[in-house]
Amino acid sequence: MAEQGGPGPNGPSLDRDVEVHDAVSTTAGGKQPLYAPRIKVYPKRVQGLFRRLKWIALSVLLGIYYIVPWLRWDRGPLSPDQAVLIDMPARRAYFLWIEIWPQEVYYITGLLILAALGLFFVTSLFGRVWCGFACPQTVWSDLYLLVERWIEGDRNKRMRLDKSGFTLDRIWRKSLKHLVWLAIAAATG
Q1: Running DSSP on this structure, what letter comes out for residue 92?
Q2: pTM
């Protein structure tokens, strides 16, 4: 058997030779919450040249997204007539006049590498052009904020509406806003 205070078979014994300290909270006032309370952000409407350019970019990009699936391209009697189509069962991709087979995937790889390099190049030259104007998250966020502004009003009106309690006007506007948001989400896929 090991001596009192000396090393035993499982390491040093925990009696008089080892100092023991109780853990003390370093935060003032005891328990702190893990998360800050939610503070709703009410963005103001911004006007100017770059905002107009952003709306133009939004319109063009959303137009491309929603219209391209409906474009038709005549490839002959045995090929699909959709202009842009990734046909997984047939293992082919169609982009206008280009037909890509699985053994030609290096074309797509090259295009994606060039697109990534172009993105890095443009972002390094022009700052946040991609993130501020063309990123899909930015485009759809702007669209949702536009719908919110059309239905609920400007910043001050939205703040008053949120503080008004559960009135019929508030319930109607919030319900309509969420229904339009749902329609946009459904149209997006």
Answers
A1: E
A2: 0.66
